[in-house]
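Comment thread on ticket #2218

A.B. wrote:
> Attaching the input chain for the structure job we discussed in standup.
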Amino acid sequence: PYLLHYMICMFHHTQKWSSPYQLSLLFPKAVSTGTSLRGAFVPICVSVIASLALQQRHLIPLCHFVSYQFNGHDLPSTTIVSIYLSVGTLFALFAAWINGRKSSTTNELLFGEYQEDVLQLAISGAGALFGRAMGMHWSLLPLPV
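C.D. wrote:
> Ran it. Output below, let me know if you need it in another format.
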């Protein structure tokens, strides 16, 4: 959803913004009073609905095409594929967020000595869910052991 906001800012030609929160049409209260959840709640909901619509329009037909190559006519439902894609995206964003992140108080890695393990689990979870969205069987998924 945030990438969608940045794309909207990129294509809006009247002004250049450094942040999508500065677009007054999407975030009316954020421009005048600073970013708040009240001012951003409706646009965030709209962006989540728009990303789900993007999934339904473009990504799920691609997933069904690839799944047809693996399974023939035994395709998963669009709701299940959408859930796989959404949760896999959350896992990938979590992996990108914790990669190299340190605590602000101790200046050590966020998960300590388990940082690499948590990062690898998040990447593996995202890969597994994206693979399942494409119709791969559990035995074909490239998961580290």
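A.B. wrote:
> Thanks. Noting for the ticket: The two ends are 33 Å apart (CA to CA).
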